[in-house]
Design brief:
- The protein has a single domain, classed as Sandwich (Jelly Rolls), CATH 2.60.120.
- α1 packs across α3 and α3 packs antiparallel against α5.
- The radius of gyration is 20 Å and the shape is globular.
- Strands 1-8-5-10-3-2 form a 6-stranded antiparallel β-sheet. It has a 4-stranded antiparallel β-sheet with strand order 4-9-6-7, with no helix packed on it.
- It is an alpha+beta fold.
- The chain is built from 6 helices and 10 strands.
């Protein structure tokens, strides 16, 4: 039961992290991903110079190098931090187990890990991710912001990840004034930065905007589910 007072409900959690080891990991990682692209293109019987490439989602098994394993650990710790922050407010309203202790024992399962390479205006249209609760996008390679933003057509949106707010459809014909300004903005563009990880709910609609630059845009994406160390994955309440 809600108590008297103001309650901000149905917020959309999203977190951004910066990998401190990116400069050390990425040279080896890029070579490994390029080799995997070549192998998968040969298996599929397609050219390697296509503007857009998406790998299979079994990269967790294929990327057996130290740099890849270190990166996955960074993903998992970032997920734990995000999930803890997103669910902290649940306990006071539901009597659920405090998330400070849950963070230490939660089990993160990477359900799928894959990479995408784009150039020459390639993009990935609006979509969501299924069979998981959280997703992430990690930037491995892209033009530096000053060069990237100088594109004559795409400008600052060049290669950005666009997130579509949950109220977007309602705003199609809605009246917006000072009273419901909390509905804005209907969407958010996050500029790509090398070493940047964005963690977001899997249900949140998003898209990769068209990208063109000197360097190819290389990203890693993953889906993850979250489980209790033992017993049920459901929220546990105190008392009856």
């Amino acid at each position: 039961m809600l108590t008297p007072g103001f309650h901000a409900l149905w917020s959309t959690p999203l977190a951004i992290f910066q990998n401190p080891l990116a400069a050390l990991q990425h040279p080896v990682l890029i070579r490994a991903l390029q080799a995997l692209r070549l192998a998968q293109c040969q298996q599929r019987g397609v050219a390697t110079d296509q503007p857009f490439f998406a790998s299979d989602d079994d990269l967790l098994r294929r990327l057996q190098i130290a740099e890849g394993q270190e990166l996955v650990r960074f993903f998992v710790e970032s997920l734990k931090e995000t999930i803890t922050q997103a669910n902290t407010r649940i306990a006071p309203h539901t009597g659920a187990t405090p998330w400070g202790s849950a963070r230490r024992s939660m089990q993160i399962v990477i359900e799928g890990l894959w990479f995408q390479i784009s150039r020459a205006g390639a993009f990935h249209d609006v979509h969501t991710h299924g069979n998981c609760s959280w997703s992430g996008v990690y930037v491995v390679q892209v033009d530096a912001s000053p060069e990237r933003e100088q594109h004559p057509t795409y400008g600052v949106a060049n290669g950005a990840t666009r997130f579509i707010g949950p109220y977007f459809q309602s705003l199609g014909g809605a009246h917006v004034d000072l009273g419901n300004a909390y509905l804005l903005p209907p969407q958010l563009d996050v500029a790509p930065v090398v070493g940047q990880l964005i963690v977001f709910p899997a249900w949140l609609a998003h898209q990769a905007l068209p990208y063109a630059g000197e360097a190819e845009r290389i990203i890693l994406s993953f889906n993850a589910s979250v489980h209790a160390a033992s017993g049920s994955d459901q929220l546990h309440r105190y008392g009856s």
